[in-house]
């Protein structure tokens, strides 16, 4: 993690005496080893387990019993949490849960207004409903593959089923017990039902393994200044047991109900056309019961949000236990009902209910538009806050989650249809996936064509910014001889780092285009009821050719996108480097608790933040010493969240040192309610002292406050422009890494320890110094 050099301690003042001092290091994204963090091959685990633990150098294991050895330096400790995200190879398969993770992020992107309360509550309800629609979409896609394409269309066609020996016992050509359509559907329904059970199991198991940690019990707010706290200070923020259990039960029930509806709908439709009044009545009762249970699921999702003011240990047993069981019982009844003998029933065409994908897409669009309206209303209540996309970051991310869900599920359906049908050689008896999925594939080339000019625009802008920044680069190294190539590399690194600030614009264009093109696909599918190339029959040849080309290219794009997910996950299962890359995605995306979707990858912060808070609180109480928590990159967000959880007495003994910190630059813009200017200013006032180091070449880190002496930067990067006595070889452009190699790191750490020892905090809200200095 660090590139320790003698210069790293140059200019650092001596640490004042005042009890033992501890430096708690927290690494960033991608993970590392305790040996690298501590710059020593011999380390020992002080406390923790194989998932997350605190390490020391072997020679520092008993540091508290020999304080005379550490009068002039702190005892270094390393908190290693990388196994929470990228340690186990099986976790690479979490990549397939990407839409669930993205919609969970939308919940935390609410604008920072504190009123009206109805709008705040409605924002959360709308995000949870979009999340529920994604679960229904995933299970519906599984039903489309298993029930419609395989059991209904292919097994119902003698020509198609003859090509697959494993479908032989269900083929209509054999006239066996399984050849009836209802029994084939009942058998195929085990696949989406098994998928639902697997999601429930993973969610329940990961909650027990990662998120069921008890947070540090905060002291009662005796001080009036402690009474009103930011959200991260609330004792129940990192413990969402009740809500996750309710959502897990509701989403599991929704999966079972979706499968039951797919089986029941086909059988009930046949019974309504037949002469049996008994079966028609049974089908009507079962469909009505499924509809009522679905309404109950929606009510459970909307009824209750997060409880953060206290540890909510209570579980709603009627919901968490009986709702999934009741839905599973209805699924069993649906399978029995569909399996009843119907000798004259023949499957033809597509499975009834293929238009449900259109209704689902329409509902998602309406929910996202409503979410955008609520977000704009909240944004007007906090006009001075800096938020991504003027408060529309949450709706844009929700739209991205729906687009990802559509691409993944549509890609599966398209590729399975092509695989089962052997390239459409049985087109007369094989209809393929629903028309909407084909129309959605057709608009993907248009979306890519729209994004290409945007990418080119940002590329040209970055190039021009790098050229304009060349004189400023030389101004930072006034004594050096100019080197055109060296200057271009440094200016290019700074310009590339600035692309992070334009990410909201790119995401806004992508989400807006996805919404409009998705609406066009929905209108096209409902208007024609056919796939694009069929709708173009009888038209001019160029139109038909363009429609067929767009559909084919889009189909391959969706299939390629899904295969890319699977291949990447498979590679990450075997390759540690690729697994680390996948882990970086989860380091950023799973910082937040599962407040919208219970099947999202688990939140590692619900384990890491209590770990850090417990360690800081117990060590300072036991030793009476001073503590600097030193966080890099994502570790700085964990460090800040842990400091927020500390009692006031402990915070007075803790200093915060952050570097490469995304707390304001990324989190402050995208999650202003939790990392906006007001919460950061509150942390600035509550913590004893705080320093933040940043570089202009860092694409992730940046300053955290506009006032006070917290921010130290931009630090020089590289440390030397040319060859010097201290750097005889060219110094690297470090960007986001190796902040500890900068002399400012050792200097600022020593100053923090000295301020802790003196008992005089270095900053307060009324200080007006700029807080920016060059390295």
Automatic annotation (TrEMBL):
- Where would you find the membrane-spanning parts of this chain? 92-110, 122-142, 249-270, 282-301, 321-340, 356-376, 388-408, 439-460, 505-529, 549-569
Which UniProt keywords are listed? Answer: Membrane, Transmembrane, Transmembrane helix
According to UniProt, the name of this protein is: Integral membrane protein
């Amino acid at each position: 993690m660090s590139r320790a050099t003698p210069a790293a301690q140059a200019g650092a003042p001596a640490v004042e005496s005042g009890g033992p001092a501890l430096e708690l290091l927290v690494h960033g994204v991608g993970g590392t080893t305790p040996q690298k963090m501590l710059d020593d091959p011999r380390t020992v685990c002080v406390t923790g387990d194989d998932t997350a633990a605190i390490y020391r150098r072997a020679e520092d294991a008993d540091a508290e019993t020999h304080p005379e050895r550490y009068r002039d330096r702190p005892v270094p400790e390393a908190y290693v949490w990388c196994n929470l995200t990228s340690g186990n190879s099986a976790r690479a398969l979490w990549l397939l849960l990407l839409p669930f993770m993205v919609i969970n992020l939308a919940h935390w992107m609410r604008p920072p207004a504190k009123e009206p309360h109805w709008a705040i509550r409605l924002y959360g309800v709308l995000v949870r409903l979009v999340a529920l629609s994604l679960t229904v979409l995933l299970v519906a896609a599984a039903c489309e593959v298993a029930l419609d394409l395989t059991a209904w269309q292919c097994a119902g066609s003698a020509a198609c089923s003859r090509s697959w020996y494993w479908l032989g016992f269900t083929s209509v050509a054999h006239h066996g017990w399984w050849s009836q359509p209802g029994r084939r559907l009942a058998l195929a329904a085990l696949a989406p039902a098994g998928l639902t059970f697997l999601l429930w199991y993973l969610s329940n198991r990961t909650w027990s393994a990662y998120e069921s940690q008890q947070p540090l019990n905060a002291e009662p707010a005796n001080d009036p200044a402690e009474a009103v706290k930011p959200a991260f200070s609330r004792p129940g923020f990192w413990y969402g047991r009740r809500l996750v259990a309710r959502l897990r039960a509701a989403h599991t029930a929704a999966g079972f109900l979706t499968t039951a509806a797919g089986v029941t709908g086909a059988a009930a439709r046949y019974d309504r056309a037949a002469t049996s009044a008994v079966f028609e009545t049974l089908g009507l009762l079962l469909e009505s019961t499924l509809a009522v249970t679905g309404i109950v699921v929606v009510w459970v999702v909307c009824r209750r949000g997060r409880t953060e003011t206290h540890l909510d240990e209570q579980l709603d047993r009627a919901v968490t236990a009986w709702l999934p069981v009741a839905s599973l019982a209805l699924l069993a009844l649906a399978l029995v009902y569909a399996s009843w003998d119907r000798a004259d029933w023949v499957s033809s065409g597509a499975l009834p209910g293929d238009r449900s994908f259109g209704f689902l897409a329409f509902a998602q669009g309406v929910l996202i538009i409503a979410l955008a309206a609520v977000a704009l209303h909240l944004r007007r209540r906090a006009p001075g806050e800096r938020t991504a996309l003027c408060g529309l970051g949450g709706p844009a991310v929700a739209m991205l989650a729906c687009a990802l869900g559509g691409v993944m599920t549509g890609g599966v359906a398209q590729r399975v249809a092509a695989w089962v049908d052997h390239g459409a050689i049985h087109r007369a008896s094989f209809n393929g996936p629903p028309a909407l999925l084909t129309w959605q594939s057709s608009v993907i080339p248009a979306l890519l064509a729209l994004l290409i000019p945007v990418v080119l625009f940002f590329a040209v802008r970055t190039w021009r910014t790098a050229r304009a920044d060349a004189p400023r680069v030389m101004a930072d190294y006034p004594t050096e001889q100019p080197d055109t190539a060296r200057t271009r590399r440094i200016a290019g690194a700074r310009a590339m780092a600035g692309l992070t600030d334009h990410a909201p614009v790119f995401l806004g264009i992508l989400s807006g285009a996805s919404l409009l093109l998705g609406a066009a696909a929905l209108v096209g599918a409902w208007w024609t009821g056919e796939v694009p190339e069929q709708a173009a029959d009888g038209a001019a040849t160029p139109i038909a050719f363009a429609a067929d080309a767009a559909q084919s290219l889009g189909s391959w794009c969706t299939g390629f996108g899904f295969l890319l997910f699977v291949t990447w996950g498979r590679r990450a299962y075997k390759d540690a480097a690729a697994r680390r890359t996948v882990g970086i995605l989860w380091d950023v995306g799973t910082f937040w608790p599962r407040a919208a979707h219970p099947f999202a990858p688990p939140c590692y912060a619900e384990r890491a933040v209590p770990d850090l808070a417990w360690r800081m609180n117990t060590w300072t109480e036991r030793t009476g010493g001073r503590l600097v928590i030193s966080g890099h990159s994502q570790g700085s967000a964990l460090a800040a969240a842990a400091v927020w959880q500390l009692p006031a007495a402990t915070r007075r003994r803790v200093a915060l040192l952050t570097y490469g910190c995304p707390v304001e630059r990324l989190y402050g813009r995208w999650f202003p309610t939790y990392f906006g200017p007001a919460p950061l200013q509150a942390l600035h006032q509550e913590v004893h002292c705080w320093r933040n180091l940043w570089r202009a070449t860092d694409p992730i880190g940046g300053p955290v406050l506009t006032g006070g002496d917290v921010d130290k930067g931009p630090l020089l990067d590289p440390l030397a422009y040319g060859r010097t006595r201290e750097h005889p070889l060219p110094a690297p452009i470090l960007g986001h890494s190796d902040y500890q190699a900068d002399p400012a790191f050792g200097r600022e750490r020593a100053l923090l320890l000295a301020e802790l020892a003196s008992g005089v905090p270095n900053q307060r809200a009324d200080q007006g110094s700029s807080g920016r200095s060059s390295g």
